[in-house]
Amino acid sequence: MCTVRDDGVSERGSPTTHNEASGVVHGPLLQVGSIVGDVVLNAPGWSSRIDEWTEGLAQGVRKLWRQEEAHRRVHDPVALPVRWHPAAPELADHWANVRRLPAGATGEPLALAGRVEHLEQVYRSIPSGRLVILGPAGAGKTVLAGRLALDLLDARGPGQPVPVIVSAGSWNPETTPLHGWLAEQITRDHPGLAVPVARGGPTRAGALIDAGRVLPVLDGFDELDVGLHQAALRRLNASPDAPAVITSRTAEYAAAVRGVDALTAAAVVELDDLSLDDLHDYLPRTTAGDRTGLWDPVLERMRTEPHAPGPAALCQVLTNPLMVFLARTIYSDTPGRDPAELLATDRFPTAAAVRDHLLAAFVPAVYQDDRPGRTPRWPADRARHYLAYLAGHLREAGTRDLAWWQLRDTVPRRVRTRLFALLDGLLIGFAVGLAPRLMSGTMSPLSYWLSFGLAAAAASGVTVALTVRLTRRSRGGRRRGKATVALTVGFAVALVFVFVFLLILVLLSQLPHGPWYPSVSIPALFFYGLKYGLPIGAAAGLVAVLVGDRTTGPRPTGTRLQLRGRARFIASRFVLGYVAGLVIVVALWFWSLAVYDAAGGGFTGPVVAVAVQQLLVGGLLGALAFGLVAAATFGLEAPLNAADAVRAADSLARDRRNTVRKVLAVWLMVLPVGGIWYWMGEREFWLSLSYGEGDDLITAVMVVVVGMTTGVRAISAWAYWLVLVRGWLPLTGRLPWRVQAFLTDAYQRGVLRQTGAVYQFRHARLQDHLLADPTPPLRSAVV
User: Fold this and answer.
1) Measuring CA to CA, which of 73, 161, 565, 611 is 20 to 30 A from 491?
2) CA 702, CA 693: separation in Å to the nearest integer?
3) Helix spans in 599-692 (H)
4) Given this model, what pLDDT does residue 377 score?
């Protein structure tokens, strides 16, 4: 008899011995008689990399929040003194629960009051590791959360959890468990952790959460949708041993506690207002040059006349750190502005009037051009219009996160469908019609191929729109398998393609200037449409099922280009692509033969021999093209490192590079192979089935190239951005032509902030103010 013990990892990440098994050993075989405690089976290979991923996440979080703290000018010139005190007892749990004392014990209150420089020590003094930070809007809760994360990272030891700040407003606790939502937020900002650790297993981010290596810092609990605060508390209380930090406005958190219960085992603190002494120590140091005494008269009146209407209202407003930041930006950083106007009771009779003025004057102040004689890139009125549009988008989306890949959703679904139907239709029409004419001087007259291209463009555009609608309806009804949906959509789309294609050609043939197709009969046109209609329909159905609703669009990729050490993976992608390509080419070839026979060609001996010869050579070449594309597009992709934390501009640039690389791979791999195939046919390396076989070959190659390009577009977030955000929205005056430049500029001016890969407005009150006082729409956006 022997006893086996296993040292596991508790939820907080500290080593504990909690697994025990007993049994009998017979040689190499262990017969287990009993098991006591939790059994954790860690798959060899990835479990040993938990420490590596944890350290990478810590590096990424530290980099992001150091950059963000510097951008928010927290220490410029000095940090505002943030203090707090224990919140009302009814908002916190029993001290015995906070202290993790056994049943029957009475816990004494913890010494929670302190200043920002003591925050890390205060948090570590809480045995439960659960802390709630309360305060009014603009009190500095987010900045304090960032400071806590950085202090914990600086004092962090090996194996300890990494604080990760996430915006709670995007969480729906009624439908999404905290674990899954938290993993999604981490992978958004740290794409290197989005890789599954094993087939069917969790992502690296999920594995870190499971191992207790993540300390969630839920910023903005109050920004949850109305009615979700109590559900969020229930979710959090369902895991009472899991450490967490929450920031919230006091009123919203208090209402949730009254409806459910306090956050189990959590200590709760509430931020203090700034004092007049704090303002005396801070505001004069924000001016420069001959404006060093700018705030002295204002602060003197606030000290000597504290009960006068003007000073009293201003003092009430400037107890809030956000309002102090706005006042500093508008008056200390902007030449020609005098803060003494804030004391004018005829303009600002109440504290609310002062507050509204600071919010309204902020955008014009930061967009005031300090270069005389030069036209600003974005005038203040135009910038405010764009910002108001972005704020409206966030309100409609129910989030505070401004993600560049979600701006496409501001375009109505119907418009998106029509735009992509037009775009894809033109591309297919180019492939079927004009491209073969341009690539070969031996083909039929230009009018012939222009009309074929026009018919194919119309048919393809209709099929794209129909694909979106049919796929959505197929998924909206009963639950169906992907194969069923693909077959249904593909068959319907193929029939529509043939019908529209034939209809357009028949109409064009009856133009008053004379028939364009004197030698092409209606049955021949029908079989031509059928020849290309079924493959295009099947491909459209497959893409729609695999990619999903194409008007919703994908997320940005989290991969990078890597050659070193990828030979085996590249080879495997090539083999998979080669096999898939061989199957596709063979299927299409037999389909073409079936259409040829149905059209009256007949399967005579010579025809069969030529077909077999073409199938062997063409199948090998076509499969080669597919294999090369697969190797170049997917084989060279490697996940980012765990320490690679992305920001908005980096995420957009990386997705653009990946998309362009894939499109170039398609064109550079398929076209040369198609050219070799065509050249061999022209040199009579084998016989053609009929006249015009070269035309059909070029058309088929171009359809494959354009079809693959469309497929790349369908899985590219940047492609949606290019068409909708860089094209349609500026064209209609909603946003400027250089959208990313505008967002980057707004971030640099302090209007926006960044949380990983997404932007946010500097504060929710600024976003709400832009919505409350919208600007009239602009007629144009030529910027």
Assistant:
1) 611
2) 14
3) 605-630, 648-682
4) 81
The structure's pTM equals: 0.79
d(CA 646, CA 640): 10
For 115, list phi and psi in degrees, rounded to 5.
Answer: -120, 175
The closest of 645, 649, 643, 651 to 557, measured between CA atoms, is: 651
Strand partners, 16: 8
User: Nearest-CA neighbor of 213 among 155, 267, 145, 163?
Assistant: 163
CA distance 315 to 307: 10
Q: Quick count: other Cβ atoms within 10 Å of Cβ 312? A: 16
Among residues 79, 101, 142, 89, the alpha carbon closest in space to that of 269 is found at 89
H/E stretch holding 30 reads strand 29-37
CA distance 214 to 179: 10
* CA proximity to 302, closest of 357, 354, 363: 354
More confident residue, 127 or 425: 127
> Could you give the CA distance from residue 181 to residue 188 in angstroms, rounded to a whole number?
11
Residue 27, sorted as left (phi over 0), alpha (psi -120 to 50) or beta, turns out to be: left
Residue 164 pairs with which residues in a beta bridge?
Answer: 216
Q: Residue 142: its pLDDT value, please?
A: 93
DSSP sequence for 704-768: HHHHHHHHHHHT-HHHHIIIIIIIIHHHTTSS-SSHHHHHHHHHHTTSEEEETTEEEES-HHHHH
Is the separation of the CB atoms in 253 and 222 below 8 Å? yes
Surface-to-core class of residue 234, CB atoms within 10 Å of its CB (0-12 exposed, 13-18 middle, 19+ buried): middle
Cα separation, 151 vs 161, in Å, equals: 13
Question: Phi and psi of 651, rounded to 5°?
Answer: -65, -45
Domains of the chain: 2-37 (no CATH), 49-271 (3.40.50), 276-366 (no CATH), 412-725 (no CATH)
State which amino acid sits at residue 323.
M
- Measured distance CA(773)–CA(766) in Å, rounded: 11
The Cα–Cα gap between 142 and 217 comes to 10
Find, among 401, 369, 364, the residue nearest to 383 by Cα.
364
Going by pLDDT thresholds of 50, 70 and 90, the confidence category of residue 580 is confident
What is residue 776's predicted lDDT score, i.e. its pLDDT?
47
Q: Of residues 417 and 23, which shows the higher confidence score?
A: 417
